[in-house]
Amino acid sequence: MKIAIIYHSFTGNVHQLARAGADHAEALGHDVAVHRLCEIDELDRATEIHKVALADLADADIVLWGTPGRYGSMSAPMKYFIDQTLDLHMAGQLANKFMTTFVSTATNHGGQESTVLSLNNVFYHWGAVIVPAGVTRPEQLTPLNQNPYGISSVSGRQPDNVPEENRVAMRYLVDRIVSIAGGTR
């Protein structure tokens, strides 16, 4: 299957989650395209990155979206990228794709669930098939992974502070979405 991972990472935590998901999907034999979105003050670089990411988004069967939480919502670079998807949406190219979300916030109860839900609101408009993490396996019952909506990490405001527990949860999320998407094709 073709999998796109599109994410924004400020401190490196969402990047680590994206890498864990990408590495696992590649190990399973899937074609994976990974795109890290630019900071707003680097938008002069964004045009080419976004052009390729939009093409991979249109081509993907599965999309994993990653963002740091910003006051209970997605980050500005993620929102800026999503605002560029209107042509794909209007052409029906985002409908029926399988999508899921992973996030990182600085504190526990830092808006992880509402950040995932802010992305889900976009997916509803697109007609995407949202695959939540759920609480379906032990990986989602650990103290650091009790968000049924998506995978969430608490960075503690420390860069590159993603525990192995969260990496395991990302591998579980990849397994789950691939299994669901593969079962419907």
From TrEMBL:
Domain Flavodoxin-like: 3-178
Pfam name, any one: FMN_red
InterPro entries named in the record: Flavodoxin/NO_synth, Flavoprotein-like_sf, FMN_Rdtase-like_dom
PROSITE patterns in the cross-refs: FLAVODOXIN_LIKE
Gene3D superfamilies for the chain: 3.40.50.360
Alphabetical list of PANTHER family matching this protein: FLAVODOXIN-RELATED PROTEIN WRBA-RELATED, FLAVOPROTEIN-LIKE PROTEIN YCP4-RELATED
Annotated protein name in UniProt: NAD(P)H-dependent oxidoreductase
Organism: Streptomyces vulcanius
